[in-house]
């Protein structure tokens, strides 16, 4: 038995809506059940595409063809995508960055710096290219870089890992996440995530066919609801996915929270996948790696990357650290996703990870200054600002300004104020949980942050 609604929910049918109308449409169907061919149930829980608001965005394939050849005679074809991805649209980060360009808005949405990485790392990449290190690397990484990853992990956690058997170099942490999910999760496996969550988690888990169980972290402190976690985890749980410091909230998981999660994972024989890309941007407490807790290394995959710490997000250099019995699955998936990551950038990344402690101390001081500018400014504008202990993100409550939800608020902020934020409802299985929150980033130069604050002070009015 099929649901007629399932046949109407096509990307092309939503592209003509404004962002707010898309949200209303989405909510009107959010409580409906859609049946796949296998009659397995799933909830529609993704925002429709915002691409209709973007400059030059075609609304159908016909429009795309017409733009190229000047003709309007070609019949449109339905968009085609595998069922595992049919509810996933263009990422919110791409959409908001394009809207920033269209409206000349200051982009405090997507988390990429508007300043460059350190010269000593860039020079190392140039030298590697000049030295002819330009062909395929080993699938699991250049030996020099694997060694550097292991050395840094030992310095940070006290754990000694084998760089040849327990370190896998990936194309950014996003690929490490995908390789981990696809290499270690079977269709039907239950995986617990903490919402709000980085959007690739749900997409890659869906590709793997996982059953996702979500636990919501709520303001003001976004603490883990331990009783709820204890009631959900069981022998049927395959893995728990943790991100600390946490994007988008800036929360850092405390030692107490991690210890309780660890004990329950051991008790139920559950794996832990931990995303630690912001480990060097821990401001108010020490970062704790889950793998370093007693009994946890043997069941943990630790994922990280170069981009956030060295302001080189475009290099896409990441890695996964795990014991050999878990590394095997990660490497099997990695082999058929990208096979190998950029060779010269790995050589340069090895230099970066061996940077003196003074580099990381200066990085933290610089970001603390940027954070102060943004947080103080957001308070002055009239937002309710929630604490951020790590990352370069701040989450605020936008409701003092009278908008129905985060999408409507972000539309107004871009078009009428000239500043971009990210609506956080896209980071929840149930968007209603995040409709009052938006995320700003402070990984921008101080002048940009001050300009954004001034725009909001001038044009954003409380209701």
UniProtKB/TrEMBL annotation:
Domain Aminotransferase class I/classII large per the UniProt entry, residue ranges: 106-455
Keywords linked to the UniProt accession: Aminotransferase, Pyridoxal phosphate, Transferase
Family annotation (InterPro entries): Aminotransferase_I/II_large, Kynurenine-oxoglutarate_AT, PyrdxlP-dep_Trfase, PyrdxlP-dep_Trfase_major, PyrdxlP-dep_Trfase_small
Cofactor: pyridoxal 5'-phosphate
One annotated Gene Ontology cellular component of this protein: cytoplasm
GO molecular function: kynurenine-oxoglutarate transaminase activity; pyridoxal phosphate binding
Gene3D superfamilies: Aspartate Aminotransferase, domain 1, Type I PLP-dependent aspartate aminotransferase-like (Major domain)
Family annotation (Pfam families): Aminotran_1_2
Domain of life where this protein originates: Eukaryota
Protein name: Aminotransferase class I/classII large domain-containing protein
Originating species: Turnera subulata
Lineage of origin: Eukaryota, Viridiplantae, Streptophyta, Embryophyta, Tracheophyta
């Amino acid at each position: 038995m099929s649901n007629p609604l399932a046949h109407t929910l096509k990307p092309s049918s939503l592209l003509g809506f404004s962002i707010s109308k898309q949200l209303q449409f989405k909510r009107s169907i959010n409580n409906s059940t859609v049946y796949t061919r296998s009659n397995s149930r799933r909830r529609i829980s993704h925002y429709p595409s915002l691409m209709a608001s973007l400059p030059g965005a075609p609304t159908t394939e016909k429009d795309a063809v017409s733009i190229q050849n000047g003709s309007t005679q070609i019949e449109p074809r339905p968009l085609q995508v595998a069922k595992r991805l049919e509810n996933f649209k263009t990422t919110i980060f791409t959409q908001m960055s394009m809207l920033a360009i269209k409206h000349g808005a200051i982009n405090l949405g997507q988390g990429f710096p508007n300043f460059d990485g350190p010269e000593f790392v860039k020079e190392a990449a140039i030298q590697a290219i000049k030295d002819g290190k330009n062909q395929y690397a080993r699938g699991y990484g250049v030996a020099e870089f694997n060694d550097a990853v292991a050395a840094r992990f030992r310095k940070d956690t006290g754990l000694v890992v084998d760089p040849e058997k327990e370190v896998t170099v990936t194309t950014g942490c996003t690929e490490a996440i995908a390789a981990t999910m696809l290499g270690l999760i079977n269709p039907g496996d239950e995986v617990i995530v903490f919402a709000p969550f980085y959007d690739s988690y749900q997409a890659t888990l869906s590709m793997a066919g996982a059953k996702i169980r979500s636990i919501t972290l709520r303001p003001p402190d976004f603490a883990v609801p331990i009783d709820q976690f204890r009631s959900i985890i069981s022998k049927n749980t395959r893995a728990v996915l943790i991100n600390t410091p946490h994007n988008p909230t800036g929360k850092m998981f405390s030692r107490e929270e991690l210890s309780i999660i660890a004990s329950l994972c051991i008790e139920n024989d559950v794996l832990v996948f931990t995303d630690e890309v912001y480990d060097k941007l821990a401001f108010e407490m020490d970062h704790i790696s889950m793998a370093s807790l007693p009994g946890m290394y043997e069941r943990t995959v630790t994922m990280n990357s170069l981009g956030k710490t060295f302001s080189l997000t475009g290099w896409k250099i990441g890695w996964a650290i795990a014991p050999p019995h878990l590394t095997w699955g990660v490497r099997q998936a990695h082999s058929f996703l990208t096979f190998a990551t950029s060779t010269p950038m790995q050589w340069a990344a090895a230099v970066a990870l061996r940077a003196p402690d003074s580099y990381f101390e200066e990085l933290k001081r610089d970001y603390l200054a940027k954070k102060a500018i943004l947080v103080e400014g957001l308070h002055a504008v009239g937002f309710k600002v929630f604490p951020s202990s790590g990352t370069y993100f701040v989450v605020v409550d936008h409701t003092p300004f009278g908008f129905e939800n985060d999408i409507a608020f972000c539309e107004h902020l871009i078009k009428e104020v000239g500043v971009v934020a990210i609506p956080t409802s896209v980071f929840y299985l149930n968007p209603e949980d995040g409709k009052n929150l938006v995320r700003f980033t402070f990984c921008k130069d101080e002048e940009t942050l001050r300009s954004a604050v001034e725009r909001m002070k001038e044009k954003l009015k409380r209701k």
